[in-house]
Amino acid sequence: MPKLIMHRNFQVPKDELTRAIEGAEPGQLIFQIGPTGVGKTTMRHAVLRTIFGSPEHWGPGRVPAIEVMALLQNQAYFTSFGLVDSLLGELFAPDLHWLLDGGSDSPSVLRIISEVAESRKIWETRPRQTQPERKAWEQFGQLAKNRSMRLASIDQAAALCTNHKNTSPADHILNLMSIAEKHRLNILLSGVHTIAQLWNTRAEIRRRSIIVWVPPYSFVRPTDRDPFLQLLRTLGSRYRLSKPRLLYDMAAVILAATAGIYGIVEKLLKDASVKAAGAGRGEIRKVDIEASVYGRC
User: Fold this and answer.
1) What Å distances lie between residue 228 and 13, 43, 85, CA to CA?
2) Angle of helix 225-236 relative to helix 262-278, nearest 10 degrees?
3) Predicted pLDDT of residue 105
4) Residue 231 CA to its chain's centroid (Å)
5) Structural domains in the chain?
6) Helix (H) or strand (E) holding 248
7) What average pLDDT does this structure show over 8-14?
8) What is the pLDDT of residues 243-276, one digit of tens each?
């Protein structure tokens, strides 16, 4: 498979994110912000692999980085207690599949991931013990220290903005900032632009945060067009096309339909491939792409 060409809208924020994590002071928060499908997860995992390397070299019992997803619980509202429970679970038995997201798939790494997965089953089936949230955060801090953890990554951080009416999104961030400062670690929050609510009313949060923007392609930036064509070429090489220039000829339509967001372009081409197969064809035609763009069956 051809190597994916790194567009400047991916490579530049990727480098910024790397510098942010490597250069952040203990206690600082890092925000990675961009539209859905722009490649935030791919970027974040690539950076984590670069900085923290393989678990083979972490040392016994050490987990320098963990990642959780912010979930809406408690009648579709975010709760910090649910977050700390997820963080504890990752420290006890981390999900290390981010190491394989385009990175190493060596037998030793796969073995480590498999072994940890068995430990996760123990955690997930453990009897639930009721304890005050404060105690849970204290336990997190102690376990983070024991594990030599440096970074906690929180994906889908926009969930922190969905609260009961008496709770401000900034309250969650101030709590995380306090935890990070107390235990001398960093927290990376990734999400769409709505996570700006987490700091836009509190100047002290903004001052203590590093923000990395991940923009999509745009027609208004001429420098985006050639890299977008290169992206189409590398993605298109994974499929049989009715003619070599099919994606080039439809580039304007595809860009308008996807905003140049990598994940959406990839999904569109997969959908077009399915439509072609459903019509009994082994190659993607213009009609298949149009059907995917306009939602036709």
Assistant:
1) 17, 17, 41
2) 40
3) 62
4) 20
5) 8-213 (3.40.50.300), 222-294 (1.10.8)
6) helix 246-249
7) 82
8) 999 999 999 888 878 767 777 888 899 999 999 9
